[in-house]
């Protein structure tokens, strides 16, 4: 690659990586429709069955490897793919297509996958987009095994940055091991399975980058900035050296970071909880001494399902999480998976309403095991929040088990729609707590599409800061807790601003908990509050970032500069 280029994607896994590109091009093999003679159909069905068996064996092997290296925390991600290998809607439907339409297996795989994906892709919500990419990943594995294609060994020596359009989670387990030091993908999102695995393996990653320059080749030097989401191709020697210094300082910092204390320089204690997506993440949350689960994204438990688990199944899962965390609290968020992600209790179709009631009952019943709280996402009007609360009350009243009926369950709301922040004082009269979702709030406030990886909408925009300030002041006036669980709290620079605005409780991805505490220990709240006041008067997010670096850089030198965070 002769030209240099800087590309912006989603910062998916923190850290800095410098290495040579290993470009994994998914070959766009055509899968033409081939008619299979009647007499050859059973042989074609056997060929497909063998591909399913060897694909399943490959994923089993990846699961073993994951279990061996990282324990059971993330193996459920691969269980989803194993289940799909026995799924009637997918596997039986492919066999039926081969049999009934007398076609080749490759064509049947592509056809059935496209048919199953179609309704999912019509829904813009990340949940359905992710389910569509699960189908693509299984399709990819099946086609690979049908063609008998072997995984290629890396043609690149030394530290490698894997560059791919997308990576299946099973491939990620295989590929994201040394000598791979970084990951760049055209597709993918913050919550993709492969992203979660990159974080688990501590591999800096930038995803959702969109189409990469065609000229990029094996061996090209690539810099990956997992803090900012920037990928540099064709970097100069100076840029490369600077990135290497940042990488080394950050690694040294992580190795040394063990303290569970999160008290600022001026003696104020800040609570750092963990965001979890899967129940199995609790173990890592405890290892990292998180002060509870501040956001449990429960919709992730429905990864491979067309509907949520039953009440009993949910009770078992939730009880496990609550028991493991007790006496630390667990904040459950009700399923957040709709296209427009709005909770309008009065508009929910019969089935969704029933799902919500089932979930609320399960959370109430899990509450006998330890402290829990429940919050509703995407609340936009006081009326809908009051209705959501009333629904919780109705579910409580109908419980047979008296201890569950009497167990405390604070009911709060996410502040992630601008209307909720604007009228925060009124919402605060009805909610037991707020949890601010800066990911959605920034995008809704700036009219940007959250699924566009290249959108510049972020929490440092002064308009978003004004909303954040409104939410925290309303909560403190009303005397209710207000936590921040969106990405702003997980970024070392913007976290300082959140503290300056008055936030004293944050919840961040499990792997970021130690880093957030280290940032907090290095902060002088007086200086952070002065910077926040000035930031509110800035005209742009860039101006805010510059201001933060200028005002707080010297005070935070040891962390930000010495450890390569900026
Ligand atoms: C948010 O919107 O900031 C948030 C924490 O929720 P999610 O990312 O799950 O939408
Ligand atoms: Mg949200």
Give a quick precis of the structure.
With 566 residues, the chain is α/β, with parallel strands linked by helices.
Report on this structure.
This protein has 22 helices and 16 strands. It has 566 residues and is an alpha/beta fold. Strands 1-8-7-3-4-5-6-2 form an eight-stranded mixed sheet. Strands 15-14-13-12-11-10-9-16 form an eight-stranded parallel sheet. The two termini are 27 Å apart.
Bound molecules: phosphoenolpyruvate, magnesium ion
What is the share of helical residues?
Answer: 40-55%
How many strand elements? 16
Spatially, the strands of the biggest sheet line up as 1-8-7-3-4-5-6-2
CA(first)-CA(last) distance: 27 Å
Q: What is the assigned CATH homologous superfamily of the largest domain?
A: Phosphoenolpyruvate-binding domains
- Gross morphology is globular
What Rg do the Cα atoms give? 24 Å
Write the layout of secondary structure elements.
Blueprint: E1 5-8, E2 10-13, E3 16-24, H1 41-70, H2 75-84, H3 88-101, H4 105-121, H5 126-147, E4 160-164, H6 169-175, E5 180-185, H7 193-200, E6 205-207, E7 221-225, E8 230-233, H8 237-256, E9 271-276, H9 282-287, E10 293-297, H10 311-325, E11 330-333, H11 350-366, E12 372-376, H12 382-397, H13 402-406, E13 411-415, H14 418-422, H15 424-427, E14 434-436, H16 438-445, H17 462-478, E15 482-484, H18 492-501, E16 505-509, H19 513-521, H20 525-536, H21 541-552, H22 557-560
Parallel strand pairs: 3-4, 4-5, 5-6, 9-10, 9-16, 10-11, 11-12, 12-13, 13-14, 14-15
Antiparallel strand pairs: 1-8, 2-6, 3-7, 7-8
The structure holds phosphoenolpyruvate and magnesium ion.
């Amino acid at each position: 690659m002769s030209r240099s280029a800087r590309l912006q994607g989603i910062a998916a896994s923190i850290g800095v990586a410098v290495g040579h590109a290993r470009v994994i091009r998914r070959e766009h093999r055509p899968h033409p429709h081939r008619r299979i003679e009647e007499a050859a159909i059973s042989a074609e069905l056997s060929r497909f069955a063998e591909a399913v068996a060897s694909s399943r064996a490959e994923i089993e092997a990846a699961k073993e490897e994951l279990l061996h290296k990282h324990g059971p925390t993330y193996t459920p991600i691969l269980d989803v793919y194993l289940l799909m290998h026995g799924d009637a809607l997918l596997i039986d439907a492919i066999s039926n297509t081969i049999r009934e339409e007398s076609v080749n297996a490759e064509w049947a795989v592509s056809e059935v996958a496209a048919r199953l994906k179609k309704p999912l892709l019509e829904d813009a919500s990340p949940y359905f987009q992710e389910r569509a990419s699960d189908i693509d990943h299984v399709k990819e594995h099946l086609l690979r095994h049908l063609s008998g294609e072997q995984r290629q060994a890396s043609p690149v020596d030394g530290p490698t940055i894997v560059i791919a359009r997308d990576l299946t989670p099973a491939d990620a387990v295989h590929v994201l091991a040394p000598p791979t030091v970084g990951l760049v993908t055209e597709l993918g999102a913050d919550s993709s399975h492969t992203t979660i695995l990159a974080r688990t393996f501590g591999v800096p990653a930038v995803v959702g980058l969109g189409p990469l320059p065609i000229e990029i080749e094996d061996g090209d030097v690539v810099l990956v900035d997992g803090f900012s989401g920037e990928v540099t191709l064709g970097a100069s020697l100076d840029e490369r050296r600077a990135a290497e210094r940042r990488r080394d300082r950050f690694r040294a910092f992580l190795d040394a970071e063990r303290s569970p204390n999160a008290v600022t320089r001026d003696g104020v204690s800040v609570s750092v909880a963990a965001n979890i997506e899967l129940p199995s993440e609790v173990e890592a949350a405890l290892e990292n001494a998180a002060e509870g689960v501040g956001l449990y994204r429960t919709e992730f438990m429905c990864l491979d399902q067309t509907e949520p688990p039953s009440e009993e199944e949910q009770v078992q899962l939730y009880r496990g999480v609550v028991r493991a965390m007790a006496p630390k609290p667990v904040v459950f968020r009700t399923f957040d998976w709709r296209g427009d992600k709005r909770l309008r209790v009065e508009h929910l179709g019969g089935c969704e309403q029933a799902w919500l009631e089932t979930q609320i009952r399960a959370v109430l019943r899990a509450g006998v095991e330890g402290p829990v709280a429940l919050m509703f996402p995407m609340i936009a009007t006081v009326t809908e929040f009051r209705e959501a609360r009333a629904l919780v009350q109705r579910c409580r009243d109908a419980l047979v088990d008296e201890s569950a009926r009497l167990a405390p369950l604070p009911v709060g709301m996410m502040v992630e729609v601008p209307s909720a922040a604007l009228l925060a004082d009124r919402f605060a009269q009805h909610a037991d707590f707020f949890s601010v979702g800066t990911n959605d709030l920034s995008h809704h406030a700036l009219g940007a599409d959250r699924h566009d990886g290249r959108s510049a909408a972020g929490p440092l925009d002064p308009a978003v800061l004004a909303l954040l300030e409104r939410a925290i002041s309303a909560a403190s006036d009303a005397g209710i807790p207000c936590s921040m669980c969106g990405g702003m709290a997980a970024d070392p620079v913007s976290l300082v601003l959140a503290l300056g605005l008055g936030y004293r409780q944050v919840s961040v991805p499990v792997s970021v908990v130690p880093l957030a505490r280290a940032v907090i220990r290095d902060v002088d709240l007086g200086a952070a509050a002065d910077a926040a006041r000035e930031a509110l008067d800035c005209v742009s997010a860039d101006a805010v970032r510059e201001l933060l670096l200028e005002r707080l850089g010297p005070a935070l030198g040891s962390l930000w500069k010495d450890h390569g965070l900026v």
